[in-house]
Amino acid sequence: MNPGTRQRGVVAGLVYVFEQVMPDPFVLSIGLTVVVSLLAVAFAPHGSLPTVLTSWYAGTFNILGFALQMILILATGYAIADASVIQRGLRAMATRVQTPARAALVVFPIVAVAAWFNWGLGLIVGALLSREIARRVKVDFAWLVAGSYSAWSVCNSGLSSSIALSQASHGNALNLVEKATGQVVPLSATVFAPFVFIPTVLVVVVMTAIFIWMHPKPENVVAFNDAQTGDSSGAGSEADPHARAAGTSSFAARAEKSPLGTWFMLALGVGYLAITWHATGFELDINTTILIFLLAGLALQRTPIAYADAIRRAARQTGSMLLQYPVYGGIMGIMTGTGLASMIAKTFVAIATPVTLPVLSFLSSLIITLLIPSAGGHWAVQGPFVLPAALSLHASVPRTAMGVAMAENVSNMLQPFWAVPVVAIAGIRIQRVMGYTAITFVVSLVIYAAALWLIP
Length: 456
Prior knowledge:
With 456 residues, the chain is mostly helical.
């Protein structure tokens, strides 16, 4: 049998399994809650029923502030990608694509770079670029969306990595290194370190080649269909109920279309950033990232009403996140409150040495990420256990911390939480996409683990 045929058969089998077995992500999150609750009652040190219930309730509502921050990153990133100048750029890139191989060669580097700079931008660019390419070239749409999501997976090794950023930020609530040692960990020791940067590049290069190899045969291609999926990108797909009648010259209409409001907001935001960075030095956190995205989107959309319309279109894609965040917050609460997460982390730490701790931190993170698909929340759970172990064993603190972050990259390829907005914007069922990203999970797991073990 031809090796290429056999490989495609494996992928087709995975796609079939995910389509048959994997339920809707919201249903999956409920199932994970059931599993975690049972595990907590059976094994956690504080797994009594009252503790499970109170921890679930606390986690469900404690995450709401963070959930709004994440949704704002997605919405403000969408408003940037929705701007006409960005849309023209995406269409220009899409017109250069004639084959599935060229599609992969375009999507992987563009989405990876965008995600490396900011995970929200990477999600949006990947989904919209995939749609633009699929409109022009006969490619398997699930394959293409899976490729963009696989390229996005490197985000936790980039400049928007909440674990790396928090350890580099003086006074950050999640800077556990500073709390323990009084020192911050610069990005040069994490994001730009060879053991992080090299495997990040390797994942993009290797997965590009693998995706080119495993594109379905022409007779098995399921192409993009606007009529079936609807125009989830929102650009003119339906009449805006908030739009005023064309040609109206009322005060309200003139105010909506005047750039003065945009200029005022830009002045406020730029002024704040200038004053703050002058006083404390350049620093990025979640709120600053949202502000920068807001300002960039306002500048690109030019008028307040155009920006408001873009955010309304973005809001169509955030419903599933609004639904799932509280559920995963409840899971996080159960794992933290009952001690289940600490038990998982301590089990790995107990057998660690200074050399193996980063790898064991990585492996335990793979498990926890499937249940807590948020790097910030994940670090708050696992960090308090792996960091003291690193200090007591004199292991590398940056390597141990980034082991947690890099495992987020890997496990996200099986955990559908972050794929939800991508498939919503692209307009495709998530099950077909996850059949392909399962391959990315295996390959990236090997690459990142080897890097933690072998690269100085």
